[in-house]
């Protein structure tokens, strides 16, 4: 499949804060679109970010980068939503969910007024809740409203395993699935090193390290974000690169397998909840939800994760 950006392709990023601006910068560096538009409630912030990227276009592929408004959604291939607020000191996850859910619901009418077929990519946290809310209140097909889900969590998981095994991260295959939150988990039965099951690789390995401690790996995956926030105050580079990969899969119709989030009704026995499972992603959004054969305990964990999202939704709806 030829990996070339489409003529007149357009990506709109709503929210020019740390995550939105970093995503715009990463998208521009990847050169996957011919037009990139930044929208923010503070127009001057979007203008400044667009100017900053424009001044480096000499070193990138040709494209148009500018600040805009909701009307620019018309003709877009992807609308990336990063708008929202971070958790305040002493605030619970539920408090944050309620506040950001209110922001997302308030944005939907303005977005849909100009919508004409773009894939909606939700990044704002709690991403599973917000993906669900956007899909339900917009009325769009579930395949057209996707969340960044556990794409970054899966990347972190693969990085940790690659460091342990001392191999290129691209040779590690596996998934983090479920919610983008505490109930996410690794589908260890599917983890492998270029076709070799991890447990088998550990037996054949000469490191004599005692093998992979799966509980420690999962704790590290879950705690990565908090550790980064502790050291630098916020996380934005990793998610920006994850967002860019999802946009690339859509704009270039790559049919890439990614653990994006979507509202599920039927797959894996999940009804009316939003979690991440391996999906084929292309120009139509989610083209197919893969039916991965999970172990019994993994399926139980996935169902539990879906219920955790439903419990939060019950509090914010």
Q: For the record, what CATH class of the largest domain applies?
A: Alpha Beta
Strand content: 15-25%
Largest sheet: 6 strands, parallel
The termini sit apart by 42 Å
Structural class of the secondary elements? alpha/beta
State the shape. Answer: globular
Average predicted confidence as pLDDT = 92
Strand tally is: 16
**So, CATH architecture of the largest domain?**
Alpha-Beta Complex
- CATH fold-level label of the largest domain: L-2-Hydroxyisocaproate Dehydrogenase, Chain A, domain 2
Indicate the radius of gyration in whole angstroms.
Answer: 19 Å
In CATH terms, the superfamily of the largest domain is Lactate dehydrogenase/glycoside hydrolase, family 4, C-terminal
The tally of domains stands at 2
Portion in helices: 40-55%
Number of helices: 9
Low-confidence stretches: none
Features:
317 residues; alpha/beta; Rossmann fold; three-stranded antiparallel sheet; 16 strands; 18% strand; globular
Describe this entry's structure for a reader.
The protein has two domains: 10-147, NAD(P)-binding Rossmann-like Domain (Rossmann fold), CATH 3.40.50.720; 151-316, Alpha-Beta Complex (L-2-Hydroxyisocaproate Dehydrogenase, Chain A, domain 2), CATH 3.90.110. 42% of the residues lie in helices and 18% in strands. The chain has nine helices and 16 strands. The protein has helices at 18-30, 43-54, 93-112, 127-138, 151-165, 198-204, 214-232, 237-251, 296-316; strands at residues 10-14, 35-39, 64-67, 78-81, 119-122, 145-147, 172-173, 176-177, 185-186, 192-193, 196-197, 256-258, 261-265, 271-276, 279-282, 285-289. The strands form five sheets. The chain has a six-stranded parallel sheet. It has a three-stranded antiparallel sheet with strand order 7-10-11. The longest helix is centred in the C-terminal third of the chain and has 21 residues, at 296-316.
